[in-house]
Design goal:
Strands 1, 3, 4, 6, 9, 12, 13 and 15 form an 8-stranded antiparallel beta sheet that branches. A 5-stranded antiparallel beta sheet has the order 2-5-14-7-8, with no helix packed on it. It has 2 helices and 15 strands. By secondary structure, it is mainly beta. The protein has one domain: Exo-inulinase, domain 1 (Jelly Rolls).
């Protein structure tokens, strides 16, 4: 039989503020990591022209059209093609690939415009979502940010698996130079009940420098809260139109090779 509470105790519990009865809601700051700061590596000058594409690669953007991309809802991609580059158009939102992928090798080149005045996460922010899912985080993000002489939490700087794993080093080039990502992505697998059989694993090079070495993700990348997996299959790849006030980034020479 449950022990009866004395009236005085019962009244005290009823009068207690809600904050004393309920755990505090998670905050974005709870998952920010600031130390240790990855050391800076000089990756050398950026490529003047797009790097060669392998013969068996699928060209996701070859400088001419957005035919391989849609907006987040599956309609026409609203970004702009300017002088052989794909320029983010923030009011149009994110863009994602028409095709779905499982395991792959991906190459992408991006450029942060020079002369930015913003700082932290408001400076050259975008994201390469390696798989788009129906989960709370929307997928798994490899962060794109201007991290050249720009301080922010280390699991949110360029080369990080956002809010999960900082890059091994900071290989960012100065704004105005072309930068590269080369990624090997192994998608997670799930059992019939939706439980994780094998986690997602990523290896990534930023400007030719290793920044993620076979990192096993603990779930989707979340802005707030604890990462977790939601079962999914083959997925689109997404580029983020972040809502920060800085000028838009440009992309070029995006290709993917499907892997077993």
């Amino acid at each position: 039989m449950a022990r009866l509470l004395r009236p005085v105790v019962l009244l005290a519990l009823l009068a207690a503020p809600a904050s004393a009865q309920q755990p505090a809601a998670p905050r974005p700051e709870d998952t920010e990591v600031w130390q240790p700061v990855p050391r800076v590596v000089d990756a050398g000058p950026g490529p003047k022209a797009p790097l060669p594409r392998p013969a068996d690669a699928i060209a996701l953007f070859d400088g001419r059209s957005l035919a391989e991309w849609t907006n987040a809802e599956g309609g026409p991609a609203g970004w702009k093609v300017v002088d052989g580059t794909m320029v983010v158009h923030k009011p149009a939102g994110d863009v994602k690939t028409r095709r779905r992928f499982t395991n792959y090798q991906l190459h992408l080149e991006y450029r942060v415009p020079p002369g930015m005045k913003e700082t932290g996460q408001s400076r050259g922010n975008s994201g390469l979502f390696l798989a788009v899912t129906g989960g709370p985080g929307g997928g798994y993000e490899l962060q794109i940010l201007d991290s050249y002489r720009n301080t922010t939490y280390v699991n949110g700087q360029a080369g990080s698996i956002y809010k999960q794993n900082p890059p091994l080093v900071n290989a960012s080039r100065a704004p105005g130079e072309w930068q590269t990502y080369d990624v090997i992505w192994t998608a997670p697998t799930f059992g019939p009940d939706g439980a994780v059989k094998t986690p997602a694993v990523v290896t990534a090079l930023h400007n030719g420098v290793l920044v993620q070495d076979r990192y096993a993700l603990t779930g989707e990348t979340l802005y707030t809260g604890t990462p977790r997996y939601v079962a999914h299959g083959a997925s689109p790849i997404l580029l983020q139109a972040h809502g920060d006030p800085s000028p838009p980034l440009s992309f070029r020479n995006i290709w993917v090779r499907e892997l077993p």
